[in-house]
Amino acid sequence: MQEQKNEFTDVFRQEQHKLIRYVQSRVSNISEMDAEDIVADVVFNVYNRVLADQPVENLIAYLYQAVKNKIKDYFRRPKPVLSLDEVDKTTGISKAERLLDENGNVEAELEQKEFILKFKAALLQLEPKQRAVWVATELDDYTFKELAEKWNEPIGTLLSRKSRAAKVLRKALSDK
Description:
Mean pLDDT: 84
GO biological process, one term: DNA-templated transcription initiation
Shape: flat
Pfam family, one: Sigma70_r2
Protein name: RNA polymerase sigma factor, sigma-70 family
CATH architecture of the largest domain: Orthogonal Bundle
Keywords: DNA-binding, Sigma factor, Transcription, Transcription regulation
Radius of gyration: 22 Å
Number of helices: 8
Domain RNA polymerase sigma-70 region: 12-77
């Protein structure tokens, strides 16, 4: 059983990014996070099968078939319905009324939402350690000293990562 666990771990490390790309190639307009979620769910289920002493002959083929089936489930799940009659809890105005509101600045809201999407995409371009430092210092209000102690990393390394992250973000946001 331990041998099959080790084989599973090795195969998963080799195939993880390929499986995510496989999902992205099969599902148009899926975020990387959703693709990762599909793969993670499959891996969890397959790993539990390995733990339950149910051997899998060709692990790679089994993983891809399981991912293919999970993609079908993804398409089958009900999509949320958008209603123009839905009332915004903060303003008390329905979506239809907001669209017709002459004082409402739909263009500004749209631009803000587009910027947020661009920013999220730019954050995903960062290396995980750079993203972690940037998020921790900018969004979670950690100091570099706190992070250095918490992560057992030199402050200079953290500063360097954040600097590189800021450069990538600036470039990504200015190019788009």
